[in-house]
Amino acid sequence: MYEFNPNFGLVEEAPAPGSLAATAVANGGVACTWVQATDGSRIVIGVAQPSSTSLAELRASGAGFTSAGGVGTVQIFTDKHWIVASSEYFGTADDAQMLTDSVRSALG
Predict the structure, then answer these.
(1) Which of 16, 43, 65, 87 is a good FRET partner for 98, with 20 to 30 A between their CA atoms?
(2) DSSP letters of 91-102?
(3) What distance in Å separates the CA atoms of residue 4 and residue 11, rounded to the nearest whole number?
(4) Strand order from edge to edge, sheet including 64-68
(5) How do the domains of the chain map onto residue ranges?
(6) What's the mean per-residue pLDDT of the chain?
(7) Percent of the chain having pLDDT more than 90?
(8) CA separation (Å) from 39 to 2, 11, 36, 86, 88?
(9) How far apart are CA 12 and CA 33, in angstroms?
(10) What's the predicted TM-score (pTM) here?
């Protein structure tokens, strides 16, 4: 995260109910939230390794990038994992790429 923006700090905060990151946690995954020290904006990243059926359902519900209410969200699927990243900083999927690439690399 430091390379992305050194003004973000990790906070102990559950993802918003009903969010994709909360869905990742409900599927046995994890979610982390970082807050920008200056303006309070957030980056939330969730990762799950759901069952193959759940993964197929999630994949069918939408991969790629969406934006709503000024928050961009990118969903990425691997053979086993579902990665979701949301933030006001993400105007396009490319804006999240450094972080999502880091997550994919950590998953192996």
Answers:
(1) 16
(2) SSHHHHHHHHHH
(3) 16
(4) 8-11, 30-36, 42-48, 82-87, 71-77, 64-68
(5) 8-107
(6) 93
(7) 84
(8) 16, 15, 6, 16, 11
(9) 7
(10) 0.92
